[in-house]
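Progress note, project year one: complex with flavin-adenine dinucleotide.
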Amino acid sequence: MKIKRTWIINGEKLEAEVPPMRRFLDVLREDLQLKGTKEGCGEGECGACTVIVNGETVLSCLLAAGQVPDGATVTTVEGLEKTLGGKVLQAAYIEKGAAQCGFCIPGMIVSSYALLSRNPTTDAAQIREAHAGNICRCTGYDKIVEAIQSAAEQWPVEAKG
Amino acid sequence: MSTKTPTSFEEMDCAFPSSLAEALDLMADESTRGRPLAGGTDLMVQWESGVVNRPERSISVKGLPELMGISEAGDELVIGSGVTHMQLRSSDLVQKHVPSLAEAATTVGGFQIQTMGTVGGSVANASPAGDLAPSLLITEGRVVVANREREREIPVTEFWQGYRKIDLQPDELIIRFHLPKKSAESREYWRKLGPRRAQAISKVMGSCRGQVLDGQIQSFRVAIGSVAATCVRLTGIEEWLLNRPLNESTLAEVEKRVTEEVQPIDDIRSTADYRRWVTGRMVRGFLENWLEPA
Ligand SMILES: Cc1cc2nc3c(=O)[nH]c(=O)nc-3n(C[C@H](O)[C@H](O)[C@H](O)COP(=O)(O)OP(=O)(O)OC[C@H]3O[C@@H](n4cnc5c(N)ncnc54)[C@H](O)[C@@H]3O)c2cc1C
Ligand code: FES
Ligand code: FES
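Model obtained:
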């Protein structure tokens, strides 16, 4: 059994026909070859698989493809490069040395983008809370928080809202 | 029905009803019935890890309009079973009228779990470590469940019947919760102890609702999770506290009585002794809040 869904993924319209319970993570990585989204634990603990669906961050490893509604807007890490905010964040992460092995970064930066899109005047405590579901075993988080604060200061008007 | 157990997500079937009536129709008949799937934050993990066998069919109740929304009805809040933890914590109504529930929701997982996970899923999952249970219990509210024919109301205090056992028939869905608001004079508190602040299963957590007037305890309800097979109200303690003065001797005595009343177990997350001690400190700490201005 398969179900049909039309999604806007990173700005592009996509008509999909997928098994309804296939993990959205597998749809992204295998069917659509969007390998930026990572699988760390597959059990909701690490946040490496974080993507944005209709403005909210979700874990694609716990999301059945059929539960991504028809017409949903999906943003993965690949989509961030196409946005001003995503570029600002990427530059800030690099400048602050916020990535080490890099495995957590796609999920981390997707959470950053979702947070700043909603609230560019965020403080360190809010940043930590909004990234508590993204585990990083390398950096100790301080540089990641600095990067997000720096991105918040430069957050482009076009990306607000 | 065949008995084939799917071994992958791809082999599983799922229905996507667009209304509650349609969902209840599917639940009514054994041939179309399936496992209700809301945010999936418990089920997808249980299936992936093999703790629970994958069912042949699920029924997605996520986002069904009849299960959404938070509203007021007189002295009560009405909260749809499909409301997410994020919606709960962001709701002015919940923050005002059942503040410990809003606070509890902020401590569930990280943001991603909060945007996915639902109240109904948390209640149906019936883990003794479920973070919403204490605040639901202290409201003495009701759970409304329904099948195709009728609705049925169950006091929250009777809904969890045992370890992961709930008062729900195979053809029923959880629809909404009716939660009496706290009075203007009463206060609520929430506390969660775990290994780290986010993304962690509670070792012990609890909520209380109470009122203290001129240094005397007028009312006090307290519920604690992770110390028994279900979240429990400490009714013996509540009764003992009634009309007592809020002073050091009451606090010392209540701490002792709590450690005697709760019957926790040892498990991988903690020991019974630690839980007993912590619960005593927690209830004492709740009461100490009234010694300070609100
Ligand atoms: C990484 C991680 C961290 C977590 N942290 C916490 C935490 O800190 N605190 C906490 O309390 N929980 C935590 N959880 C558990 C989980 O998020 C909650 O229990 C959650 O709210 C479940 O809701 P759901 O909508 O995702 O449920 P689902 O997984 O969709 O369903 C759970 C159960 O509810 C049933 N169900 C769902 N909706 C209905 C309905 N309307 N009627 C009848 N049955 C229904 C399902 O059949 C299933 O049995 C965590 C989970 C993960 C993966
Ligand atoms: S892979 Fe999804 S949370 Fe770890
Ligand atoms: S940089 Fe290695 S896990 Fe975060």
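The longest helix of chain B spans residues 272-288.
The domain at 69-142+150-180 of chain B is CATH 3.30.465.10 (Uridine Diphospho-n-acetylenolpyruvylglucosamine Reductase; domain 3).
No further modelling is planned for this target in the current period.
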